[in-house]
Design a protein that fits this description.
The chain has 244 residues and is α/β, with parallel strands linked by helices. The protein has a single domain, classed as 3-Layer(aba) Sandwich (Rossmann fold). Helix content is 34%, strand content 27%. It has 9 helices and 10 strands. β1 (12-23) and β2 (31-42) form a beta hairpin. It is globular. The two termini are 21 Å apart.
Length: 244
């Protein structure tokens, strides 16, 4: 199946056009790991990114998350070109537009669940206001952890820790959340709970999600599936869930 982007540029929250990534440019060991990748993600879409190990998913996610720079091509978020802008602009865009959820939750062990969820506000503004703390409490309530706000990560199960991580990613209501194997470290029941939570957040807040996963069950429950093989996008397909 051809990898033709589904979303039109006019409606795209995120738009990649012919993005490539090369390492060690100009050296004998130069290597290209992404080869002209193009796709769009519309506002409110829940998209899965799949592919075998070594296919370039992590590199692509780092570029989307503004943690690495593309070597060539165009990457626009909300219409603003990201390729070629300075580090300060990338940092600002990352803090105001993107949320992140990882396979390993990366919660600070000495912080309570509530303190972990307030971290994005602290990083963006240098302080946490009472309003932002209230918003963090409301978000923990929303993910079913209202009674665990004062607990530290070591006192929570793996699924609960990942729910804290989702609350942290969503607390500033970013337009786009990048989730890297968010259920990869969980059992089936916890995985289903975490995905159902992401789907609910996506629906209620109209947040776009890009979910990297090796789980075909999870991918099939997203609106679209992007498949990356050897650094090339080989599939961009609307799922049954996306047509519902």
């Amino acid at each position: 199946m051809s990898a033709t982007p589904v979303a039109q540029p006019s409606s795209a929250l995120l738009a990649l056009n012919a993005v490539s990534k090369r390492y060690n440019v100009g050296l004998p060991n130069e290597a290209e790991v992404l080869h002209g990748v193009s796709f769009n993600i519309a506002r409110g879409e829940l998209v899965a990114l799949i592919g075998p190990s070594g296919s370039g998913k992590s590199t692509l996610l780092n570029i989307l998350g503004l943690l690495e720079r593309a070597t060539s091509g165009s990457y626009r978020i909300e219409g603003q070109e990201m390729v070629g802008v300075d580090d300060e602009a990338l940092t600002l865009r990352r803090r105001t537009t993107l949320g992140f959820v990882f396979q390993f939750h990366h919660l600070l062990p000495a912080f309570t669940a509530l303190e972990n969820v307030t971290l994005p506000a602290l990083m963006r503004e240098g302080r946490v206001t009472s309003r932002q703390r209230d918003k963090a409490r409301a978000m923990l309530d929303a993910v079913g952890l209202g009674q665990a706000m004062g607990k530290r990560p070591g006192e929570l199960s793996g699924g609960m820790q990942q729910r804290v991580a989702i609350a942290r990613a969503m607390v500033l209501e970013p337009p786009l959340v990048l989730a890297d194997e968010p259920t990869g470290n969980l059992d089936t029941a916890s995985s289903d709970e975490v995905f159902a939570l992401m789907r609910r957040m996506h629906t209620e807040l109209n947040t776009s999600f890009l979910v990297v996963t090796h789980d075909p069950r999870l991918a099939a429950r997203c609106d679209r599936v992007l498949e990356l093989v050897d650094g090339r996008l080989v599939r961009d397909q609307v799922t049954v869930a996306g047509r519902a």
